[in-house]
Write a structure and sequence with these properties.
single chain; about 325 residues; alpha/beta; eight-stranded mixed beta sheet; two-stranded parallel sheet; 13 helices; globular; binds aspartic acid
Length: about 325
């Protein structure tokens, strides 16, 4: 009896030390900030998981798109937001490349955020406007080398996955091209379809339907293995650029100092969303799959982010690309 009473008071005390917001969390709309424009691949991932997270949290989860500067504007904004669990950041591999790419990054991905969990890993595809002359990767390489002053490569700014993939491509073929930055690759695809830019590299979550409808030319997938969703497309590695590999991972973060019970609630909701039937089906159609539950945790994300920062730093330094 005494123990039960003590237990009751211990529980009461624990509640009393939690901020009020954490006790009844969530009691208002939660905003997931996506650092690129609506309709693009990061946005697609965000909107797909927002729906089952809304059901799991019994509170509306909405998406806000804040594009610009390769995703760093949105990440700075979330880093400075109130740590109350109502403003979150869904970002991709750019969270790990920006610290090396930017000389003056206004946030530290490792210390200014609380990781919530990994979401998925997405292959990329090297694609061009439909009437771009090169027919395959080998032709693409010789064509861009011969026409380097007029070929345009579109990306979503320094820090975007499309920037990273383009940077790897240019360093592999030792040719610098004119890059055209956008606030997200939804806009890149629009201009690629309109013929305003020549080529890009983007996540399958944005390119699969265009490739299947034969609206763009595709030169390869950026993973080591071919994809079940696009079995006829060779890998960039097998098509001629040995060792070329890049895969985009997405994850969810909260601002630093968000209370642990809030993070736990969000991690659980994310894990529920990743098991959702519609999420799984749509991800599969788009060439990706949800991270398994035991890897959708703050601990795994923290370690992954650190490993990815360490992995990309020497590659970026070697390429010599920097932004201020
Ligand atoms: N795919 C874009 C990138 O290059 C981002 C986006 O528009 O979602 O990072």
């Amino acid at each position: 009896m005494v123990l039960r009473v003590l237990g009751f008071f211990a529980g009461f005390l624990m509640l009393a030390v939690l901020p009020v917001s954490a006790q009844k969390y969530p009691d208002k709309v939660i905003t997931i900030v996506v650092p690129f424009t609506a309709g693009g691949p990061t946005d697609t991932v965000g909107r797909l998981i927002a729906h089952p997270m809304t059901t799991a949290l019994k509170q509306q989860v909405i998406i806000e798109n804040i594009g610009g500067a390769g995703g760093t504007i949105a990440a700075s904004r979330v880093a400075r937001s109130a740590p109350d669990g109502y403003t979150l950041l869904l970002h991709h591999i750019g969270m790990s490349t920006a610290p090396t790419l930017y000389r003056k990054l206004p946030y530290n991905p490792l210390t200014d955020f609380e990781p919530i969990g990994l979401i998925n890993e997405v292959p990329m595809t090297l694609i061009a406007r439909r009437d771009f002359p090169p027919k395959d990767l080998k032709e693409l390489i010789s064509y861009v080398k011969a026409n380097k002053d007029k070929v345009t490569y579109a990306n979503a700014g320094i820090g975007a996955a499309s920037h990273l993939c383009g940077m790897l491509f240019m360093t592999s073929i030792q040719t610098d091209l004119t890059t055209v930055p956008y606030k997200g690759t939804a806009d890149v695809i629009k201009d690629l379809l309109g013929g305003q830019v020549d080529f890009t590299c983007d996540q399958t979550t944005n390119t699969t339907s265009q490739i299947k409808a034969d609206k763009v030319k595709v030169y390869g997938v950026t993973t080591k293995k071919r994809l079940a969703s696009l079995p006829k497309i060779p890998t960039v590695d097998e098509a001629g650029l040995k060792g070329f590999e890049v895969s985009v991972w997405h994850a969810l973060y909260a601002p630093k100092a968000t209370p642990k019970p809030v993070i736990d609630t969000l991690t659980k909701a994310l894990q529920v969303a990743l098991k959702d039937k519609v999420v799984k089906e749509r991800f599969a159609d788009l060439g990706t799959e949800p991270i398994e539950e035991k890897r959708a945790t703050p601990e795994v994300l923290r370690a992954h982010l650190k490993a990815e920062i360490d992995k990309w730093a020497p590659i970026i330094k070697k390429a010599g690309t920097y932004a201020d």
